[in-house]
């Protein structure tokens, strides 16, 4: 018993030592003093907030305070919308030297920003919008070299803004609706993503904003005007023009007007050409919809050649209706009795076109049955091998994997028939969220977990067959009537080991072990990109490498919070869980395929994260 006590004692001492090593007493007293001045009468009557000398800001979780994972130092103070009516004491809060984020948005706080602001050396986010703050901005602001977001809008600040051009990481500067004067501040506009100084008293020339912002960003400053200027070429003092210079100016103006006239004529011709092209395209689409898939296929292949060069699957176009019967229906009530001729005759709408083929929405039985038909071209694989693969995929059943209902195979092309999914793809949903459509954090983590489980099942089920997805992307994650995600086109493509230069299909379903491993690891990479799309809210547009490289560059610069979708942060999504999902994504896109986790491991990690999110939501 004594031995157990002796062993436990060092552990207890260690824990007590760590607990006592949160923010030191001086910092804690400064923070309490800060809140006493800031709160007015609001927080003094609410003991649940903490903010007293008998508790610890990290261990006891003071209101609005976030700390590091070891609970030793304050990282964030966020006190938005709490009806605080006191005075800002920036010197006291900056005693917390590890502070990264400070926000008191939408309160009624008075006071000014003192020179002690410069003591917040590590500060990255400063949000003071929507208060009654006044006075001049201190020169010490230029010492905040890590600052990325700066928002002092909707206050009563006056005077000139210090030169902040040396703060190279600044990406947001909001100072609208104040009484600031002098010239528009010197900023590094090449990095700025958000900028607004409207409704102030700025005067003088406009800065060179690198074409990134509209006039609304500086409207409401009556004495502001003049041409854009660049930092490299400051304007010289104006000198009176001589008659000779005046004459030269007139000639230049004449040439400029003539150039504008020529440019206008070119634009008119281009617009006319576009309108004519659109009209022709519209007519072609109408003709296509009227004639159906048959029109597309018959126009692609020369019927006489098909008759002349008979293959094992195509006798001739004329014989196809009676003798060929090439459509194989895979035991599906949805496609029971479906014939190849039905697809050929049915009205069709082109939904999308990629480098591997096209997909159509096909309406049968006067529109009562809607199917999706994937047409794959230039895939030199034997019909027997293709048939075996489709039959094997049909056997591997998972509710979130979209199985084919039927398929057709010839030497020239392959057709696959799927149940039409009416609610679009994950890619379109992410595009919609950027335009205001709701796609909250809970829904995103659910999509990630569901897709991960489905892929883990398929990888396990088809590991011996060597069948990976081969073309995993957000455009292939579809939503059914219940908005449940379904992975489409599984196993339809052979992965090219993420080689961007490869644009042709494999001519066989090789069971080479190295190739199989690489194919499954390529799926992991594709899923990692999907996770990046979910946490950033940025759907891949064309080349996925652009998103991957951007995320890696931001993470390298330790600006990780800038990666996350701003809409998720505004809704109150946990930054900690967002960070965990980002870390999982980064593991999946590891440049070395053999260092990536397998899909089963990824599914476990994401489901653990989802469970934590569900528990957190149930306690709200």
TrEMBL record:
Signal peptide per UniProt: 1-22
Record has Hydrolase as a keyword: no
Highest taxon of source: Eukaryota
A GO MF term: kinase activity
Pfam family, one: LRR_1
Keywords assigned by UniProt, alphabetized: ATP-binding, Kinase, Leucine-rich repeat, Membrane, Nucleotide-binding, Receptor, Repeat, Signal, Transferase, Transmembrane, Transmembrane helix
Boundaries of every Protein kinase domain copy: 345-620
PROSITE patterns: PROTEIN_KINASE_ATP (PS00107), PROTEIN_KINASE_DOM (PS50011)
Binding site for ATP: 374
Residues passing through the membrane, by range: 254-276
Cellular localization per UniProt: Membrane
Primary location: membrane
InterPro entries: Kinase-like_dom_sf, Leu-rich_rpt, LRR_dom_sf, LRR_N_plant-typ, PRK1-6/SRF4-like, Prot_kinase_dom, Protein_kinase_ATP_BS
Name recorded for this polypeptide: Probable inactive receptor kinase At2g26730
Organism: Gossypium hirsutum (Upland cotton)
Chain's gene name: LOC107933611
